[in-house]
Amino acid sequence: MVSKKRLMATLATSVALAGAGYVTVNQVVPQVSIQQTVKASAINDYIAANNIKPVSIQNEEGTFSQWFGYANGVGKPIGIVIHETATPGASARNEVTYFNREWQNAQTYVHAFVDANEIINIHNTDYGVWGAGHTANNNYVQVELCEVNTTDEFARSVSNDAYYVASKLIQYNLPFTPGVTVVSHDDISKMYGETNHNDPVGYFANWGYSMSQFDELVGQYYNNLKNSGSVDGDGSSTNGGGDDTNNNTGNSDVVGVTQVNNPNGSYVPIYMFNEDTGLPEKQTVRALANNTPWAVAETKTFDGHVYYRVSVKEWVMDTYSQYSAF
Ligand SMILES: [Zn+2]
């Protein structure tokens, strides 16, 4: 966030099905004993399982009239700062309107705003902005992630945010180095001590997400864009694979939803099918929270049980499922 003082809503990490045909998933809940070692991201899994692609970057000229180059020169940022607006209900377009109108009063401006549907760049990233204190402003591209209300929207918004970051790293011939070329406002506060904001850490945490998980996504997009020009790594597109006809079509790969519960335990086991034997194997590292709804991408029957696929390779058994096909 920049300098606006607005109340930050506490979002539940446990989200029921949202409206408008979207399906939301819940966080994977690890067993308590190994909680600290679990790094995998249900959000990144959801992005992959649902084939979510970033949208294209829209470039438009904002009203910020303070043109200054970076410390190393015009067109020479050293990295990108990740912010989060802390403004529930405000879309990227809402924020663009607000900051174009109010930056002189608020004394803040950033390069871009990102939400689930749009990436809007409003100031040439060859020049600095006012988002995170003197040193950061003179060295980094700065992007604000907008708050959203469903897991599906959050997944889409971080996909868009990661794409923007990866694209800017490549545009300025910067390496992908988490904590150096990709930094949170929280990192900036600790590095330079000129601001005390810690976004987007708290907002990410509301969705069970972290900067390191976000970095995983940025790294994936960065490598694929570098190698093939596409976030998929298949060379199919030069704009991140997103186009306006695909961005808002929802979850075309989702076939239904399952409400999971294990009346005899505190969590619902996940199964993965062994690639050699084909046998389902109960996972010991991750599980699903009881009484949570999950988007299902595929169903299959094995040994008298139906299994529902809830992420790239993770399945839940009919014993614990109440499944509804779309
Ligand atoms: Zn910030």
UniProtKB/TrEMBL annotation:
A Pfam family reported for this protein in Swiss-Prot or TrEMBL: Amidase_2
Biased composition (Low complexity): 244-253
Signal peptide start and end residues: 1-18
Residues covered by region (Disordered): 230-253
Keywords on record: Signal
CDD domains: PGRP
Protein name in UniProt: N-acetylmuramoyl-L-alanine amidase family protein
Species assigned in the record: Companilactobacillus keshanensis
Organism classification: Bacteria, Bacillati, Bacillota, Bacilli, Lactobacillales
